[in-house]
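Propose amino acids for all 307 sites.
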């Protein structure tokens, strides 16, 4: 899968350069990145000008395009097959969820662990200049290590990142490619926060999401699991909803920011996975917004701001 994706040459997918075996251990060699997206946000101040905002929008659109390539990649090992490495799975902490794969999704690719730490920043990439480029890494691990068989005879627990996992896992519902859309929605909302308020804003957003779950654990998920006695259900965490409304009223909010917030709230962070936007639709929408921003500079920063 990694080899095939590399051959596609997508600018926002990390490339596999070499594989080798050493002392009976298998290794993958990829280009060296300067940092991951989390580190980039923390170390890089958000600069409110046209080129910076355009770069951010282009990167968001590029990541969506990369995800579309992954989602529509026809894998030779169906999702839910037993092609998983038990040694690798055993070294990763479990969240206690079992993953049931939607039968209609078994022949598609899925990342399974999208988070800022798995998006890498390269400070120079041909065609992007000094601003650099963001690329999705950790490709294919979701399919290889985080699925259970469709028969349920060989269940494997998910080992994705707790903050960015969607509610269908806790609700014991089928998992599909929409899993990644939820995770991307979380990341996009953090990206918007960084644009407007930098690293401090990201910290404050994390604190705003903190809540006590029904089991007494304090976490920073983007949804809240509710058990009323009649069954479990999930809803978007109030801290997330309040934060999006706060950003809409931000003095630096622009049409671009509003469009991205609408996208996240109405099409990505949806409890029902079937209500989430598809990757190809996401790419199409964002690509159009990039083109719009190039012909209408005020779209990025607002009418009262200089470019």
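Proposal:
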């Amino acid at each position: 899968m990694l080899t095939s994706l590399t051959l596609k040459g997508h600018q926002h997918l990390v490339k596999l350069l070499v594989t080798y075996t050493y002392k009976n251990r298998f290794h993958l060699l990829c280009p060296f990145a300067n940092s991951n997206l989390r580190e980039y946000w923390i170390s890089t101040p958000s600069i409110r000008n046209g080129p910076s905002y355009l770069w951010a929008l282009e990167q968001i659109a590029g990541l969506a395009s990369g995800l579309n390539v992954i989602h529509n990649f026809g894998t030779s090992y169906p999702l839910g097959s037993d092609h998983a490495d038990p040694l690798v799975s055993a070294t990763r902490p479990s969240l206690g969820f079992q993953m049931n794969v939607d039968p209609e999704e078994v022949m598609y690719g899925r990342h399974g662990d999208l988070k800022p730490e798995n998006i890498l920043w390269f400070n120079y990439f041909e065609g992007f200049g000094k601003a650099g480029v963001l690329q999705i890494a950790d490709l294919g691990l979701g399919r290889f290590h985080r699925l259970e068989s469709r028969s349920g005879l060989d269940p494997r627990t998910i080992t994705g990142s707790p903050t960015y996992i969607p509610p269908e896992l806790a609700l014991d519902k089928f998992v599909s490619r929409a899993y990644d859309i939820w995770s991307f929605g979380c990341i996009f909302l953090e990206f918007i926060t960084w644009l407007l308020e930098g690293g401090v804003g990201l910290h404050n957003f994390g604190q705003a999401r903190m809540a006590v779950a029904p089991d007494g654990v304090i976490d920073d998920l983007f949804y809240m699991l509710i058990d009323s006695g009649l069954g479990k259900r999930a809803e978007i965490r109030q801290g997330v909803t309040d934060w999006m409304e706060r950003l809409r009223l931000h003095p630096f909010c622009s049409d671009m920011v509003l469009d991205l917030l609408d996208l996240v709230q109405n099409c990505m962070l949806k409890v029902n996975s079937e209500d989430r936007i598809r990757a190809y639709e996401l790419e199409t929408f964002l690509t159009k917004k990039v083109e719009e921003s190039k012909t209408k500079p005020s779209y990025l920063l607002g009418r009262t701001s200089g470019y």
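Confidence is low (pLDDT under 50) at residues 76-97, 141-160. The CA atoms of residues 254 and 301 lie 5 Å apart.
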